[in-house]
Amino acid sequence: MSVPDKGLRVLVAGGGWAGCAAALELQRQGHAVSLVEAARSLGGRARGVALHGRNLDNGQHILLGAYAETLRLMRLAGVDPDRALLRLPVQMRYPQGGEGMDFVAPRLPAPWHLGLALLRAKGLARADKLALARFTTTARWMGWVLYQDCTVQELLERFDQTPRLTRLMWRPLCIAALNTPPERASAKVFLAVLRDSLGAKRRAASDMLIPRLPLGALFPEAAAAHLARQGASVRTGVKLGAIAPDGKGGWTARLGEDAPAETYDAVVLATPAWQSASLLAPHLEARELAAQLEGFEHEPIATCYLQYGPGTRLELPFYALEDDPAAGRWGQFVFDRGQLDSAQDGLLAVVVSAARDAAALPQETLAAAIAAQLAHDFKNETLAKPQWSQVITEKRATFACTPGLARPGVETPLPGVFLAGDFTASDYPATLETAVRSAVQAATAIRAYGALPREKRSLSHSHGVPAGDSVR
Known about the structure:
alpha+beta; FAD/NAD(P)-binding domain; disordered C terminus
């Protein structure tokens, strides 16, 4: 492979959304990119899984807040977001006839869309509406910034939010966005999400985006195809075992057990935090960073797929559900996959975020409880008896987004080695957009690194890798 003028040979380890985004951006900048993924398919924790003769996602996603970088790189990969995503105004809508609420922001310029949505909202008393108005007005006056972090629950109490509004609006939004219960979630990060959803300056930036395509086709597969067309190397089923300095300012990588070592000018670790930690730990300079990555607490997300007969359809593409684990109500949002993809007619996907307790249940028990919840909420007994069900649980879906959590930047103490992932420093929680933004930041840092003279990139690592840990 010919190396572009002033371009670097860059290894990107990890074929999730961060890795694919980093590879795309690096290739666009003129670097010679090699992307490797240990699994047989791309996508990481946002990938497809073949089950029951269908290509199911390992988690139902909804994109909430500004997703500018994700949309830009989707277009770069050849994906049309207008076709690939269903765009809906920000909303919180529960099944009709229950005790929920119906809140929909009309397509008006900000902030008028929010004001009119509040006036039209059903299921909220006057005190609830005044509390919501007070919250958004005060948060906007604060610039949606909280300098002293606290839990979301403490923030809501400070803003005198009503119990009903907390239960129907703030709690489900917090769990969906941060995958952490309000009692433990960071108020500072929560406000950043609300800033770019309820408080967005551009009304369109507040829209909710729901994937129509399988997650693999939505970005990773398209990115890999684009990279291959541009001459980049994309390999699946290849695991990065270790990295070591080559003594010339570059890095040697062991890719697979018996494969010969390969040398690169720079490396992007776009692997999950705990995997990046194991690759960094052998290097003395990076052991503090490795310990930080190992110290992240993680939260699971469970998605329950329920297949019903042809023509089974909800009135809306998705609804909020009021969960109550003590009463056997686990579902928080339900999506009608048939309205997103005609090939998935009759398939409903129910999401359980912050799913530690739910994940401890047998899959059949959880699926039966969720089906009963749907039958009760939609007043349709046929929903209690799906043709088949499947629960997919991502045990370490995201880090627990707690107050004051220290998250690393994309640069590491090892020259030429960079991080990319949803766990890196950001005012956002662990979202696809956070992963993509970190990838772009890593690519920008590599561009600056590549502009340095080679002798300035070189650093003796003789003390960094203990004997016997070097790549052979």
